[in-house]
Amino acid sequence: MRSFSGIHAMEENIDRGKLQVTVRSGADNHPIENALIRISYTGDPGSTIEEVRTDASGQTPVLELKSPPLEYSMSADQEEQPYAEYTVQVEAEGYENEEVAGTEVLPEVLAKQPVLLAARNIPDSYQRIVIPPHTLFGDYPPKIEEAEVKPVDESGEIVLSKVVIPEYIVVHDGPVNDNSASNYYVRYRDYIKNVASSEIYATWPDDTIRANVLAIMSFTLNRVYTEWYRNRQ
Predict the structure, then answer these.
(1) Which residue(s) pair with 95 in the sheet?
(2) Tens digits of per-residue pLDDT, 124-133?
(3) Which of 9, 137, 143, 180 is deepest in the core (most CB within 10 A)?
(4) Contact 113, 58 (CB under 8 A)
């Protein structure tokens, strides 16, 4: 398995993707203007290949960056890494410096990297976030199998009287039966978006992406509106 995270050994075997960084305040979500953004290969974070600043909306210009060939991302079982990994370093006056390592850039699509900065409480403070490999490419343990028909208590299966799309959902950060794992409130839209970006590639055909997103939404809403998950907390 050949990595595509550093400076590319085969310059002729590359494509191009796009990246835009959005910087906001972690305290109030307001955009941060004039933040300094440095982009480098994750395999060589000390070698800056792009240096830009954010505008009044907290966004950088759309940057065109090297990526693997498009065909690498068109199959879920591809052995070659289908995306390039970049490190995003952010500096802004009055905020902690932050570094995001492993931002994934696929060919022919726009990757959007949000960054939330914390107010600086101590001089030269610094935070580093590492994005793990994509689930289609990384080496992860298999998912826990679930029964197609799940038992429910006598109180019945449906919890709510009508179906509405929730604004927030509770995400259990661990196996179902692990009561020591934390629960987090996550916006429903953000959860669906983040799961989709972790389980499929943005280069896939539109109909394939829609089908996967609908499956993710269906699975998630099943968890929200049935008692099976709640009864096992």
Answers:
(1) 119
(2) 678 899 999 9
(3) 137
(4) no
